Structure formats: C-alpha cells, structure tokens
Amino acid sequence: MNAAMNFTAATTTTKPHSPFLTGGVSLLRTSPTLLPLHRSPPSSIRMSLRDDGPSLAVVGVTGAVGQEFLSVLSDRDFPYRSIKLLASKRSAGKEMTFEGRNYVVEELTADSFDDVDIALFSAGGSISKQFGPLAVEKGTIVVDNSSAFRMVDDVPLVIPEVNPDAMAHIKLGNGKGALIANPNCSTIICLMAATPLHRRAKVTRMVVSTYQAASGAGAAAMEELELQTREVLEGKPPTCNIFSQQYAFNLFSHNAPILSNGYNEEEMKLVKETRKIWNDITVRVTATCIRVPVMRAHAESVNLQFETPLDEDTAREILENAPGVVVIDDRPSNQFPTPLEVSNKDDVAVGRIRRDVSQDGDSGLEIFVCGDQIRKGAALNAVQIAEMLL
Ligand SMILES: NC(=O)c1ccc[n+]([C@@H]2O[C@H](COP(=O)([O-])OP(=O)(O)OC[C@H]3O[C@@H](n4cnc5c(N)ncnc54)[C@H](OP(=O)(O)O)[C@@H]3O)[C@@H](O)[C@H]2O)c1
C-alpha cells in the first residue's frame, strides 16, 4: 500500500481494493520499459499539515478518483490545516489513514462544508449539483470533477497548463465561494497534447478516436473487468453489473447515453469542452469514444488540421518542450505511448507524430496520446487547480 494512504477494514463489507487503484501494486512495476515519464515524488518528511494551510474536504473519497486525490495531495505536499473525508452513508464510519494520521469517513451532508476552504468533489454529477452550490454558499471553493457545471457560462473549465487565466479572478481567503470545473478526462488528455500545437499553428479541425480504460468508469468497473477476465478464462459467463455487455476480451462504443444527433455524451464533451477551454467557438471537433479492456489510462488517436502549416519535426520539438507532456516516438524500435506505461504517472505521453498524408503540405498531423485519466484526467488536474488558489 501507498505509505500515505491506507484503508482500514472497519466493517466486514469492505472489499479489498483493486491492485490497479492507487495504493495497490503499481502497474508500472510490470512495465517492460524504462520511462522518462514523471510522477511527483513522494517526500519522506511531510510538511503538508500546517496551520497556515487551507482546510480541505474530499467528496467521494472512497472512489477511484477520491483515492487518487489523497495520493496526489500527499505526493505534492499540498499544505492543509485540516482534511475532511466525505462519502455516502454507506461508507460513513470507515477508517482511513492519510499521511500517518487516522480519519473516519463522514457522510456528506449539507453541514459538511462549515469552515472548509477548498472541496475536491468526485462523487458524480447529481451529488455535485446538490452539494456544490451549498458548499459555495458557505464560502468554499469547489473543484468539481463531474460534468455538472462544466458548460455553465461563469464556471471556469480549467486545465492548468492550458487556460490558467480562466480562474484568475477566483481567490482563496476572501470568504467568497466559487465553482471551478475539471474537464472530462478525455478532453484533458487530448488538449494537453493538442494545445501546444494549436498555439503555434491554430487548429481548425480535430478528429479524436479514443480507447478508454475501465478506470474511467470508477472503481467498480475496474473490479468488474478483473472479475470478468478471470471468469472468461475459467469458461464461466461474465458478470455484467456495471456494463451491459462483456468487457473482457472485447471493446464497445462508450457507455455514455446516445444523444439525438447519434453522438454519445462522452463524444460531445470533447466537442463542447474543447471550444470552451480554447475560447474558440469556431474550432471543428468530432470524436468517436470506445471502451477497451484496459484497466487504467486512456489512449487517443488525434488528427489535427491547422490554419498555418506545421511540419512534424517542429511539432515534435514543440511537444518535447510542453509542460506535462513527454514524447515517446521511437520509430526504429516501434516504441510509442501505451496505457500501461503512463499508468500512475503525471505526464501525458505523445507519439506517432506524423504528417497527415490525406492533407495538403503540412496542414495536418496525426498524433497518438496516452494519459492516466484518474491522475492527470481527474485528481492531478484538480489538485493543480487547487494549487493555483494558494
Ligand atoms: N474515474 C475517472 O477517471 C474520472 C475522471 C474524471 C472525472 N470523473 C468523475 O468523478 C466522479 C467519481 O468518479 P469515480 O470514478 O471516482 O467513481 P467511483 O469509483 O464509483 O466513486 C464514487 C464516489 O462517490 C461517492 N458517492 C456516491 N454516492 C454518494 C452520495 N450520495 N454522497 C456522497 N458520496 C457519494 C462514493 O462513495 P461510497 O463509496 O460511499 O459509495 C465514492 O466515493 C464522477 O462524477 C466521474 O464522472 C471520474
């Protein structure tokens, strides 16, 4: 287990956590290659519990993202004077250890946010809609991982490396609450790579095809993929509680609801959120989102069309210098980003950088991007947002 965080089985119904979640055996230990990828190093001396730090709350702390929040806060020595661990009634009373101290998970209620400066929410859209505004009324700055407020006009939708200015007006310590939305995980991973190129050559059209991991659907989906894999190998019918069809040894269109235009909600998030984050309603975006039986970390094929030419060598150089991005693009040995390699890492990896032969001159590029969507696609991005408030 991660030294910073530890679940204590306080009730007999507590399930052991998937080894693919933070705190378990890192997938990277099984990775065959040595990577240049970055993860904030855990420090041995914890200075994070400090009287001058903000008071924190983590909403949905027992979930896949909630667990990762704790890990990222600890890895980055985020300062805090107190931390409240909140989840549903089901988890109330469970004990957790965080940074060597014991905490009891509390049930989320309307009173949870008294004296909370920053709340990191990851308990689903309906919980955010119900409790986010209540927290804001109490003066709390809410960083929300759900889609509940992303497209609300005066709620900033922020990727710190991309559009930090969008939240420049929100300040900690003036008693005023506010909402800041974390973009969808596929959008974050895509725009971490596409934005540095967009800044140079202006993207006019982007075509995204995703290969999305079980982790994007939460801890229970990861457990179901593990279970199904075992069941299929043993010749048993797979248990389908989270997804309506067999996931192990299969792939299928993303499980988000299908809209009247034939796109699913996940695909339209990429379309709408890109426009909001880039503050560009003219950029044309289309997406096809697919679930693949990968435990953790999303992959995306991204095709870009530019207003001004951008050759592949210049694009590679731009990406090599982009914060939070690492280039893995070794053509001779056919080594490119994989979900396994980026699992539990902060950086988004980009490779397969090549001129799009279907477009004239250097007006188009193909890239392949992988990122840990529980980390950069959710918890890390949200904690980076919180860091900008300090
Ligand atoms: N997974 C990702 O990669 C990812 C990425 C970006 C955004 N998100 C978003 O983050 C949110 C959580 O995702 P997840 O993957 O972490 O899901 P998850 O593993 O299923 O965890 C859900 C969390 O929400 C809590 N919760 C459920 N009902 C609640 C209630 N009535 N009151 C308080 N807490 C409640 C759960 O607590 P109990 O354990 O007590 O039920 C649990 O802590 C979702 O909005 C999701 O869209 C997820």
Number of domains: 2
Can you tell me the CATH class of the largest domain? Alpha Beta
Give, in order, the helices and strands.
Answer: EEHEEEEEHEEHEHEHEEHEHEEH
Please give the radius of gyration in angstroms: 21 Å
CATH architecture of the largest domain: 3-Layer(aba) Sandwich
| Oligomeric state as shown | single chain
Ligands (ions, cofactors included): NADP nicotinamide-adenine-dinucleotide phosphate
In total, how many beta strands?
Answer: 16
Looking at the structure, the CATH topology of the largest domain is: Rossmann fold
The coarse overall form would be globular
- Terminal-residue CA separation: 29 Å
Query: Count of DSSP helices?
Result: 8
Overall mean pLDDT stands at: 91
CATH H-level superfamily title of the largest domain: NAD(P)-binding Rossmann-like Domain
Keywords: Amino-acid biosynthesis, Diaminopimelate biosynthesis, Lysine biosynthesis, Methionine biosynthesis, NADP, Oxidoreductase, Threonine biosynthesis
GO molecular function, one term: protein dimerization activity
Catalytic activity: L-aspartate 4-semialdehyde + phosphate + NADP(+) = 4-phospho-L-aspartate + NADPH + H(+)
Protein name: aspartate-semialdehyde dehydrogenase
Note down, in words, how this protein is organized:
- By secondary structure, the protein is α/β, with parallel strands linked by helices.
- It has helices at 64-75, 125-137, 185-201, 219-233, 265-278, 312-320, 339-342, 375-389; strands at 5-8, 55-59, 82-87, 95-98, 101-104, 106-107, 118-121, 141-144, 178-181, 203-212, 252-253, 284-291, 298-306, 325-327, 348-355, 364-371.
- It has a seven-stranded mixed beta sheet.
- Helix 1 crosses helix 8, helix 3 packs across helix 5 (265-278) and helix 3 crosses helix 8.
- Residues 60-66, 87-88, 90-91, 108, 122-125, 127, 145-146, 185, 215-216, 218-220, 373-374, 377-378 line the site of NADP nicotinamide-adenine-dinucleotide phosphate.
